[in-house]
Design goal:
With 246 residues, the protein is an alpha/beta fold. It contains 8 helices and 7 strands, in the order E-H-E-H-E-H-E-H-E-H-E-H-H-H-E. Bound molecules: NADP nicotinamide-adenine-dinucleotide phosphate (NAP).
Length: 246
Amino acid sequence: MSELKTVLVTGASSGLGAQFCRALAKDGFTVVAAARRKEKLISLCEEITAAGGKAFPLALDVTDFTSFGSKIDEAESLAGPINCLVNNAGSSVSKRATDMTVEDFDFVVDLNLKAPYFLSTEMARRWIGSKMKGRIVNVGSISDRKTMPGHTVYGTTKSAIARLSQQFAREWVNQGICVNTLAPGYIKTELNAEYFDSPAGQQVAAFMPRKRVGKPSDLDQAIVYLCQDQEFLTGQTIALDDGQSL
Ligand SMILES: NC(=O)c1ccc[n+]([C@@H]2O[C@H](COP(=O)([O-])OP(=O)(O)OC[C@H]3O[C@@H](n4cnc5c(N)ncnc54)[C@H](OP(=O)(O)O)[C@@H]3O)[C@@H](O)[C@H]2O)c1
């Protein structure tokens, strides 16, 4: 059995993050489910526990960068040493590039890029210090390869996170740490449900090659694979998008 079996998932209170927790717990991982809305995390962890898995809620605002040391201590006191990190929390501000304010720009960059950077380096310092293996999965997006008006900063952060995974992978390649990006296509979640339920969104979905958007469970196998105890895959982006970018 893999020795990499304790995972911290950010943005776990809804959408992809909640489903990553379910899939990883089903595969035998002990899960720390982190986000700001703790009540949602508690019910997710109860659901996972009732299904026979192990999961613990952790209140975490990933833009509170100086809290990461104490938050990882808290996570490890709940679940034991963390050896996988899934940087999933993310969002966008839907505005034309010419309308974005400095505050909008900082909001997206802080959440989608700065948070994964500092959470990953906090984890890696610990793994390197204790000679532990580690896995990091950064959640990118189809926006790294397909432009979307109104999401210029979002798309830029998602390209940047794929590059960040490569840089981290290279720096830590001889320290047992693998870093990859999972870059999904459009999947209906809280992030975009209103849009995909609207006539405009339904029209966009109708023009996709398979005339549909995905569901969070479409990523189950990929997230489990990327968190597994294999070393040959590092610095890569897995583009899982149902052919939407073709
Ligand atoms: N859905 C798609 O089509 C799609 C496609 C490609 C990539 N993605 C990426 O997948 C990831 C998850 O998106 P989703 O679709 O699942 O969206 P979602 O349902 O809106 O989930 C976003 C998650 O991020 C958390 N979050 C937001 N701000 C946070 C903060 N400051 N600190 C901690 N957690 C925070 C939210 O939890 P709280 O509000 O409780 O903190 C929530 O759990 C994002 O990185 C997104 O860019 C999504």
